[in-house]
Amino acid sequence: MSTSTPSATGPAHRSLSNIRSGAAALSQTGPSSPRTPARGIASAFGSPSSLRVEEETVVIELGTRFIRAGFAGDHAPKAVVCSGPEDQRRAGDFRSWVAQAGDRDYPKGQPSRAEWAREYEIWASDLRDSDVSLVQDKIDRALREAFNNHLLIDSRPRRMSLVLPSMIPLPLISATLDTLFNPFQALTVSLVSASVMSAVAAGVRSAIVVDLGWSETVVTSVYEYREIRHTRSVRGGKMLVNEVHDLLADLQNGQEGGQAQERDPEAYQSAKPFLSFEECEDITCRMVWCGQASKMQTAGDADRLSTVEEHEESPDEPSDPQDDATRFVRIPLESCHPPGIVEVPFQRLSEPCENTFMAAQYDRTSFDDNELPIPQLIYQHLLVLPIDARAACMSRILFTGGCSNIPGLRQRLFDELCLMVRNQGWDPVRGKGADQVRRQVPRVPAAGGFDNVRREAASPDAGRDPIEQLLEKTRNELADMGMQGRLRAVHTLGAWSGASMVGQLRAMAVATIDRDSWLQQGIHGASRPGEVDLKAQQRQSLNHGSMLHRASSSSATWTLGAWGVV
């Protein structure tokens, strides 16, 4: 084999002359010590930081007591900003230092339930006594704190995705959008539902989302990424904190609540010591738990017997603290006057949670429609759904909200629901009259009529429809998977994580508002969903940069989606 000399037109890195000339130049001009080579200026398309501003989407979740903010594609928000009295102080307000000096006048009685937690809420569903301008200022201050201290972003225009519950009032939506478009200069704002995003974060298309929120509990059925029904109950975190306050006040006052209240309700209310909201909420988060129902067999355990391992019983063996009714917990109370320490039986720490969400001591017929216990609320919600939607949703029950983190609460709600379904079934009509009607239904005689046709069709010689065979195969596969028609609880990462994934995938939202359209028309420019030309929106391409001006390049009509339908 012969070795040929590299031609002039060959690759430069394979030329021997270039290697020799480069080595000679390096030996002549090279420094004695190594140094960092000079970097060339990258182009606008090569620098990843130049595309960051255009590609990033800020995901904001607006709750009753918090605001979560972060970038699309992250697994968790970078900022969680809460509202409180300390965040609403003005310059020159020194009341917090006066309280620390001991000059605070402690109130003699407990304030009303409506006024107790108002300062800790960003917004409330009841707008009759609310100032929308004050709510807008709270949102503006919380977003500025999140953007400047946690997200560390400048004031350049960006796309934003807003996660909202579907039942939020329209004045609050208008105040929030005014804040995002005017001070923060958002290009477009996409509205996404919190319930649908919770289902996305769980990896399912259909689910029953039980939001154990602060002011209320909302049960939403999501079918194929669409909300089809909402039911609500006033039982939530606010009622739970009130129950904890009543329990601690009764123990601190040395009275049994029921007997003293029956004797003299006014004297009992005035004799209660006052406890601050912060202390009651802290005790609720750290100490409250939910016990499991005794002598209850769930639907999943009905078909099998539980296995019990044999072991020697020892009298010195420690028992479960949840079953030990004689165990006491010492809780210091510093907000009451005078401060003290109350001893609470550990078993009684489960009473506030059970009274709030279960209310097992009352009859089911004694509740109004807006104050149903949570298991009864979920069961009534499933009962009125269509059969196909119920079969798809009941196998994916999602528990979200702040109260879902209470130990034992989710399992207790699921067990109560399983027991209710097993005992009552899915027949909405009950009573003696319904049983008599079922007994009086006439039966078709065995011979004659259509029975002969059915026998001939069911004979082995009769031909089978190929389409029916495919449908039967599909039904068998779904039955083998066990995904429909059975109650099952599924874990979700939360609404913010679902919105982060949707924003990273650049999926088109149902309601997307452009800044120019909002500044020109406001919330009154939103059209009904039936009046929007969806075909014109679907014909647009999804290449780089087209999502920024999608709403402006489309038709003049736009909608608020599920939030704009009255």
Describe this structure in words.
The chain is α/β, with parallel strands linked by helices and 566 residues long. Among the domains are: 53-83 and 121-201 and 491-566, 2-Layer Sandwich (Nucleotidyltransferase, domain 5); 205-235 and 366-432 and 469-489, Nucleotidyltransferase, domain 5 (2-Layer Sandwich). Helix content is 38%, strand content 13%.
Question: How is this structure best summarized?
Answer:
This protein is an alpha/beta fold and 566 residues long. Helix content is 38%, strand content 13%. It has helices spanning 16-29, 48-55, 95-100, 113-116, 132-151, 170-181, 194-202, 237-253, 257-263, 265-271, 277-287, 351-357, 374-383, 387-393, 409-424, 432-439, 450-458, 466-481, 495-504, 515-521, 534-538, 550-553; strands spanning 57-62, 66-71, 79-82, 159-164, 188-193, 207-212, 217-222, 227-233, 328-333, 340-345, 397-400, 511-514, 526-527, 558-559.
Entry keywords:
38% helix; 566 residues; Nucleotidyltransferase, domain 5; disordered N terminus; 22 helices; 4-stranded mixed beta sheet; alpha/beta
Q: How far do the termini sit from each other?
A: 87 Å
CATH topology of the domain at 53-83 and 121-201 and 491-566: Nucleotidyltransferase, domain 5
Approximately how much beta-strand content do the residues carry? 5-15%
Biggest sheet strand order reads: 3-2-1-4-5-12
The level-1 CATH class of the domain at 53-83 and 121-201 and 491-566: Alpha Beta
Which class do the helix and strand fractions yield?
A: alpha/beta
Q: How does the major sheet shape up?
A: 6 strands, mixed
Q: How would you describe the shape?
A: globular
User: What is the count of helical runs?
Assistant: 22
- Tell me the Rg in angstroms: 32 Å
| Counted beta strands | 14
